[in-house]
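> example.struct
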């Protein structure tokens, strides 16, 4: 479980960089962008500036949440893949050492380069001299731990995908409450008096769905990638330790 703090620090650093780089552009887009037409009338703002300008506090929180999700997705693309979890050069090196029965050297390689593969292989080698069942038990236990860590890592995308539309709904309810409060305070209310509040309320729902749909897709993608990598690495480890079954 020692690897979790490093994951958290990496996610926080990436998220901070994206927020710092993205917010200035959002602030610029949110500024009034109405231009004067040839007849002196103001043109309607662009869709992007209109959405951001009417997002409100909750809408901006959803936007920041989307930036964090983007940072996580980029980080996962770089780290949650078979080449990182089980580097090909380590597979070849471990296979060569196992074939030569240099198990102590293999243990040193596992300790020097911690990955999913080497952590699982190292757990099995730590029980060298015990029964084959004891070794496989240690391997399975460490593999389950690695799977839990990876699933917890990609699980943050699931949290964001669930929270974003709920925040959008919160913004919508808040906007509708304000609109009806306006009606209660004024005896006669024109439609355009309520339009801005209702529009802002619906925009937060729109933002929440815009964030939730792609983030949910990304979560399923990485979840499947973790599953496939776990199966492939399990087959590699099983092949490495199969020789101890025959010796037993």
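> example.seq
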């Amino acid at each position: 479980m020692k690897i979790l703090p490093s994951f958290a620090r990496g996610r926080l650093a990436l998220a901070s960089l994206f927020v710092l780089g993205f917010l200035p552009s959002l602030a610029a887009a949110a500024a009034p962008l109405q231009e004067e037409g040839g007849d002196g009338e103001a043109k309607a703002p662009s869709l992007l500036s209109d959405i951001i300008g009417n997002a409100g506090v909750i809408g901006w929180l959803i936007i920041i949440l989307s930036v964090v999700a983007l940072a996580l997705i980029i980080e996962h693309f770089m780290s949650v893949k078979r080449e990182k979890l089980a580097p090909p050069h380590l597979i070849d090196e471990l296979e060569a050492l196992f074939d030569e029965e240099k198990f102590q050297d293999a243990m040193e390689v596992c300790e020097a380069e911690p990955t999913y593969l080497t952590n699982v292989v190292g757990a099995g080698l730590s029980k060298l001299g015990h029964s084959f069942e004891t070794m496989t038990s240690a391997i399975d236990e460490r593999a389950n731990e690695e799977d839990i860590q990876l699933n917890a890592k990609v699980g943050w995308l699931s949290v964001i995908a669930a929270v974003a539309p709920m925040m959008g709904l919160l913004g919508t309810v808040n906007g509708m409450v304000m609109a009806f409060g306006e009606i209660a305070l004024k005896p006669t209310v024109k439609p355009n008096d309520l339009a801005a509040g209702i529009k802002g309320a619906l925009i937060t729902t729109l933002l929440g769905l815009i964030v939730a749909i792609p983030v949910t897709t990304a979560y399923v993608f990485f979840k499947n990638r973790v599953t496939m990598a776990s199966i492939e690495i399990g087959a590699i480890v099983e092949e490495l330790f199969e020789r101890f079954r025959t010796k037993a």
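> remarks
The two ends are 32 Å apart (CA to CA).
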